[in-house]
């Protein structure tokens, strides 16, 4: 019998891509004002987003992880901006200017960050019947403001932020914590997420059933990561769970 849902936040409950696109555009505008026409500002903004999503070369990995571990996420992002602008043949920018650009991105992203349509209602409905636990990967630096922005604590029972734990998804320890918070066994839960490795491989390793929110991602069977269920978009979740809970009711009666 299903007792709880574990839910990923970015791209599952909330439209993070849309917020990133809005923020990227605003960052490009601010960078253009700071650097002038010699900067391909859209390209700069694109590379900044790749950087904050850890799409690094091996050398960058070494450099940036050291800054994050020894200083802060903030310091890394300032360095990233300075490095990208230098690489794009721009005059050196001060820490203050780099911070202004970074804050511009964060502010715009947060302002545009919201649930996918219909998700608030879905959570309200599910919470009447199930315990809801959000498990979101990422540093507290970016996840805490997003959680607050959508008042997530008012919509679910528990929130686990990967960056505040000793391990993130797909590691078992974070799912074990979620099970403890929900007071459930692994067979009484379904985990929903869009990340094939963190969400689906993570749930599989913890013997928890999963729903993969596909978002047009390709599915490589050779990876050996198989979700129990697939929906194409978060908008399908309300109907999917209505049906699942109804079938369960029929089976138990
Ligand atoms: Mg996600």
Number of discrete domains: 2
**Bound compounds, please?**
magnesium ion
Main β-sheet description:
6 strands, parallel
CATH superfamily (homologous) name of the largest domain: HAD superfamily/HAD-like
Low-confidence stretches: none
Shape: elongated
* CATH topology value of the largest domain: Rossmann fold
User: Termini distance?
Assistant: 12 Å
Written as H for each helix and E for each strand, in order along the chain, the element string is: EHHHHHHEHEHEHEEH
Strand order of the largest sheet: 3-2-1-4-5-6
Tally the helices: 10
Mean pLDDT: 96
Q: Could you estimate the helical fraction of the residues in percent? A: 40-55%
Indicate the structural class: alpha/beta
Number of strands: 6
Q: Return the CATH architecture of the largest domain.
A: 3-Layer(aba) Sandwich
CA-atom Rg in angstroms: 20 Å
- CATH class annotation of the largest domain: Alpha Beta
How would you describe this structure to a colleague?
This protein has a 6-stranded parallel β-sheet, sandwiched between helices. The protein is built from 10 helices and 6 strands, in the order E-H-H-H-H-H-H-E-H-E-H-E-H-E-E-H. It starts with a strand and ends with a helix. It is of the alpha/beta class and 253 residues long. The chain is 53% helix and 11% strand. The structure holds magnesium ion. Magnesium ion (MG) binds at residues 8, 10-12, 193-195.
Could you write a compact summary of the structure shown?
The protein is built from 10 helices and 6 strands; from the N terminus they run βααααααβαβαβαββα.
């Amino acid at each position: 019998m299903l007792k709880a849902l574990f839910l990923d936040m970015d791209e599952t409950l909330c439209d993070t891509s849309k917020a990133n696109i809005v923020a990227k555009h605003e960052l490009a505008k601010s960078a253009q004002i700071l650097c002038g026409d010699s900067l391909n500002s859209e390209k700069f903004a694109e590379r900044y987003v790749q950087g904050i999503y850890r799409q690094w070369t091996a050398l960058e990995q070494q450099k940036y992880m050291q800054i994050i571990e020894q200083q802060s996420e903030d310091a890394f992002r300032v360095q990233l901006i300075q490095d990208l602008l230098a690489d794009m043949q721009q005059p050196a920018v001060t820490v203050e200017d780099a911070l202004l650009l970074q804050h511009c991105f964060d502010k715009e992203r947060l302002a545009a960050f919201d649930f996918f349509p219909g998700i608030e209602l879905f959570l309200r409905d599910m919470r009447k019947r199930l315990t809801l636990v959000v498990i979101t990967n990422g540093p507290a630096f970016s996840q805490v403001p997003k959680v607050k922005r959508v008042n997530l604590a008012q919509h679910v029972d528990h929130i686990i932020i990967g960056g505040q734990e000793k391990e993130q998804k797909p590691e078992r320890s974070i799912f074990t914590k979620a099970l403890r918070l929900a007071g459930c066994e692994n067979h009484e839960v379904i985990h929903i997420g869009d990340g094939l490795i963190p969400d689906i491989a993570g749930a599989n390793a913890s013997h928890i059933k999963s729903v993969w929110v596909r978002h047009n991602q390709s599915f490589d069977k050779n990876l050996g990561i198989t979700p129990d269920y697939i929906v194409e978009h978060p908008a399908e979740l309300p109907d999917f769970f209505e049906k699942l809970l109804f079938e369960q009711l029929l089976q138990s009666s």
